[in-house]
Amino acid sequence: MPAITPIIILLALPLALTDTYPVCPKPTILTVTKNYQTLMDLEMFGEATSKPYTFPKKMKYSTRFMLDLYNILSTEAEESVNRPKRYSYYHSRLRDDEIVTAGISDEIVSMNSLSKKGVSVGQKQKLLFSMKEIPNDAKAIGAELKIYQKAVPNTMRAFTILVYRQYRKGPMKNSHKFMKKISEKSSSTSYTGWLSIDVTRTYRTWLKNRTETEALFVTAQLLDVQDDEIHPTTLGVVFHCPHKENEPFIVAFLRAPNDLHSRIPRHIMQPLSKPLSFEQMLLSNDEKCSVHKLKVNFKELGWHDFVIAPKTYTTGYCRGTCDFPIKNSGTNHALVQSLMQVTFPDLIPKPACAPMETSHLSVLFKGEFNTVLKNYKGMVVHSCKCQ
Length: 387
Description:
- It contains 6 helices and 17 strands.
- The radius of gyration is 28 Å and the shape is elongated.
- Helix content is 14%, strand content 33%.
- The protein is α+β, with helices and mostly antiparallel strands.
- The model is unreliable at 4-23, 27-57, 80-90 and 275-285 (pLDDT under 50).
- The longest helix is centred in the first third of the chain and has 19 residues, at 61-79.
- Strands 3, 6, 9, 11, 12, 14, 16 and 17 form an 8-stranded antiparallel sheet that branches. Strands 4-5-10-7-8 form a 5-stranded antiparallel sheet, covered by helices on one side.
């Protein structure tokens, strides 16, 4: 009898519906060849010893996302004062609409999930977020839930990610809880990358009805099995990682108050006792109002524990006299006030040398639970006039 040659047939087995969590993908190493000193100096990533700069593997994507936004906003601010464009490199990792929305936001917050591994309600994964550090009078321009998905080998299944929020029917705390679907996103088991799910309407509800924490519930549904929910982890969705870099987070774009006091701890607001130098105390009587260069170092102010970037920035300060006649160094009002001051020296003060042209500064903060990118207006002084 002729020999029988065995034939091996590879079958595309259906996806097993298990309760195990997928292996977390290895974190990607972010290599930057640009000499961007502010980014290099971030204490949270340690000091780089040689070029190109390579950051540690255990960097949360939410932090990287905020750093990219910070770099872009900082670059655009530099371009607005006729400086060369340097960091368009960061645009490639963000969507155009994210960059546009960031540009019109007063504050951007990334909120990492506080939920521990395995906290589920049936087939829904619970994600908990802290609202404690969000300004009370903030208004949401937009908000997205970002979830990482890892492709499942040897499978090809289309599915929908469903996001729910929990609410009560009735004012009483013991009233029955209900689940309401707020958003959804289509995907497949062959995809690897981040999924962005719009949660703007729900986030606005959170801002209106304030509590310390809020929760979302995430589940999935196979397209060919319409009625049954399946836990997203069986489809490659990552909720928990030992190195935490690909865990879910919410990014919220906000309209918020533009005062610096709201983000600075109270004990930091005490001025450091440092005597002025002779040069700082000496002010010539004939020096006219003008702008002088000033380099601000947040570590010297005692702010380095919560300011991630920039570590330093260059601005200006105004110094000089506003004596009559002011001529071209002041506003029309200052010219009139200086004339009135000469006429009535005991009643009218001299005009003051003050900032005339300013620009905003993007500052990246780290809070107890969230990371905040704030665009502060009037932080960088470019010119001064008598006012």
